Amino acid sequence: MLEPLEAAHADCLRDESRASGHADYIAHPRSEADILAILAEARQRQLPLTIQGARTGIAAGAVPRGGIILNLSRMDAIHIEDHLLRVQPGATLAAIREALPPDRFFPPDPTETTASIGGMIACNASGALSFRYGPIRPHVRALRIATADGHIHDLHRHRDRADGPRARLGTLELELPALPRPAVKNAAGYHAEPGMDLLDLFIGAEGTLGIILEATLDLLSAPGAVWGLMAFLPDTAAAVGYVNALRAAPPGDPARPAAIEYFDARCLDFLRARSDLLATRGIAIPPMPPGAACIYAEWHAASETEAEAAVLAAAEELPRFQADPDTAILADTPPELEKLKLFRHAAPELVNSTIDERRKAHPGLVKLGTDMAVPDPHLGDILNLYESDLTASGLEWLIFGHIGDNHLHVNILPRDPTDEQTGRALYARWAAQVIAWGGSISAEHGIGKLKRDLFSQMAGPETLARMRRIKQQLDPQTLLNPGNLLANP
Ligand SMILES: Cc1cc2nc3c(=O)[nH]c(=O)nc-3n(C[C@H](O)[C@H](O)[C@H](O)COP(=O)(O)OP(=O)(O)OC[C@H]3O[C@@H](n4cnc5c(N)ncnc54)[C@H](O)[C@@H]3O)c2cc1C
Questions:
Q1: What is the CATH number of the domain that holds 14?
Q2: pTM metric for this prediction
Q3: Residue among 68, 112, 126, 484 whose CB has most ligand 1 atoms within 8 A, to mutate
C-alpha cells in the first residue's frame, strides 16, 4: 500500500502556498479498508501521516513533514439523492457542481473549484456566497471519520452530541473544554462547546483530529433567479458606505444580497494590464471607469421580479455614494453572470502566476496574502490601516475579497526578498490590530503550518493548552497532520 516517495511524486510535497516538505512514503488509498491498513502501519511504526485532498490549500496544511502522505484524491465518489449529497473526500467542488441536477444548489463556493470536499470541510472553507449561506460547516449533515486509533465513527448533526463538556466517541471518553471563538467569520482553531454536535469538532480541525472518509451535505433548491450588479465607487470610503447600505437589509429580506465582494482600483488596474493574457483564456475586461473601486453584489431571489426589484433598489442607492449608476454592469442571465465570475476569479490566479514568474529570479519568494476578518464597525478602520501602511511602504499590492463579511485579502507581490520582509512586518502589525479588535487572523484559509505564530497570539496560552488536551485524547501519538495548527509537543 505504501509506495516509497520518488521524484515522480514531487508535486505531492507542495500545496498552493508553494511551501515544500518531505516524506518517506505516499499512499493513494481507494477504500476505507486501505486507509485503516495505512493507519495501522503508521501506529505500529510511529510514522506521521499528512492527509491530502487536492492540495489547493494556501497555509501548507497538506505539506508533509516526513512519514506518510495519505493522498485521498482517488476516493471521489459522488451520490445525490433528493436534497442530500453523499461524497467521498476526494470529490472536487467542480465535479460536485457538474453532478448536481439543475434544480439543486450547493452553496459553499471557495473560488478554487478544484478543491476537494475533504479539504473544504477540514478547513471550514467558504467563499463569496458565505455572506448569505455561511461557511461549509452548517451544510454538513453527517461525517464518517477515522480516528488515529483505527476506529470509524458515523457522526450525525443533532444526533451525536456531547453531554455538556464530555462526549463518548467509540471507546474514547472525551473531555471537550469550551474554546472561545471570535464573533466574526473564522476558520482558525478547533470548535468545541458544551453539548456540541460532535461532527463540528472535525470541521475546521485541519485534519489533526481525524480523517474524513465520507460526508453527507444538505443541498438547497436552486434559487428562482440570480442577478448580479458590478458597481464602481470613487474611493474606499464610498465603497464602505455602499457596503453598509447593502447589508442594512436583515437576513431573510429579499433586498439582502447573497454575496458582497470588493476589488480595489489597484486590483482592477492589475487585471487591465493583463487583458491580453486574459483574452487568451476567453476572459474579457468589462468596461470600468478608471481609478474606481468595485463592489460586486449578487442576489438569490424567489423570482425574476424579486431579483429585479432588489437590483434596482441597490442601483438607486449609488448616487448617495458619488457613484454613477450608468457605469454599473448588470448580469441577469447565467452567461453574463459567468462572464463576471471568470473575470473576478482571475485576480487570485494571476497574482500567483506573477509570483511564480518572479521566483525564477528569486527562488523562495512567496506571495503574502492576508485572510483576516474584523467586526462590522472596524471595516473602514482596517481598510484605512491597510492602505496607509501599504502606500507608505512602496510595496506592490492590491486588495480584493469578501467585504460583506469584513474579510479582505491584501495581496502583497514582493519583487525581491527585501520586499517580502517589509511585507511580513506589516502582516504582523495588522494581525496584532485585528486581534485587538476581536477579529480573526484566518477567516477561511485555516492556519496550517504557516500561520501558527499568529494563531498563538490570537488564541492565547489557555486556549492552546485546551486544544492540545483535545488533540492528545484523540491522537496520543501525534500521528495525524503533525505541525498543523499546533506546534509539535
Ligand atoms: C486561487 C485560490 C483561491 C482560493 N479561494 C478560496 C476561497 O475562496 N475560500 C476558501 O475557503 N479557500 C480558498 N482557497 C484555499 C483552498 O482552496 C481551500 O482551503 C480548500 O478548502 C482546500 O481544499 P483541498 O482539497 O485542496 O485541501 P488540501 O490543500 O489538500 O488540504 C487542506 C487541509 O485539509 C486537510 N485535509 C484534506 N482532506 C482531508 C480529509 N479527507 N480529512 C481530513 N483532513 C483533510 C489537509 O491535511 C490540510 O490540512 C483558495 C486557493 C487558491 C489556490
A1: 3.30.43.10
A2: 0.95
A3: 112
